[in-house]
């Protein structure tokens, strides 16, 4: 379970995330919604370690992550999508995934250096990489250099690399932002598939309410850095605070 307790960050006098306490269970996709500037991305940055907290804590399965850098949080099981900048453009799709699998297994599966173990490790890494490519429907592109892939497939490959790290928590911040009409459903489909694994915790920051309605098991609402609503999607969307946060904004714009 991922838990934040009184998680807070101040920028000068401005409290961007204000004492947010929340638990996220495996097998649940929680959508984080709220108006622009509500603190959603900042809350993500505090959880993933991109930003140090002014106060409060982040724990994963009882392990204290507060104060750890982002890389250590990734190793602990927090997987933030599209933060990985380690696609190797001149290597093939398969080689990219195999390297990510290897990075994860290194240390854990080292059995000493002999030719047999190098060969069998290589075969195992390849099999695992192929399994991941199959689950993201990219087997046909396994030999293509990454640089030759269309943008949507590169984003899909980034999710595959994230899967190779076997995180217990997946964090998506507006995963379809900047994607074309054709590309967006592909990524949403991958998230739908990840949801089937009930051992995974998924957090999704998303503005598009149709996507939230379809994917979320639970919604939390941030407003001016405060957690103002938390519950089952239908209930939260109908709540006066959400209606005000969204519709109030629409009224202001009008
Ligand atoms: N590094 C920073 N320094 C100063 N202020 C910041 C910093 N990062 C975020 N903020 C402020 O914190 C507030 C929350 O921003 P944040 O980007 O988390 O909102 P958001 O809910 O993700 O918005 P959007 O939906 O527009 O992406 C905003 O007022 C923003 O200007």
UniProtKB/TrEMBL annotation:
GO MF, one example: ATP binding
Any one cellular-component term (Gene Ontology): plasma membrane
Keyword Zinc-finger set for record: no
Record's keyword annotation contains Transcription: no
InterPro entries per the UniProt record, alphabetical: AAA+_ATPase, ABC_AA/LPS_Transport, ABC_transporter-like_ATP-bd, P-loop_NTPase
Domain ABC transporter, chain residue ranges per copy: 2-249
UniProt KW keywords: ATP-binding, Cell membrane, Membrane, Nucleotide-binding, Transport
A Pfam family the protein falls into: ABC_tran
Protein name stated in the entry: ABC transporter ATP-binding protein
Species the sequence originates in: Limnohabitans planktonicus II-D5
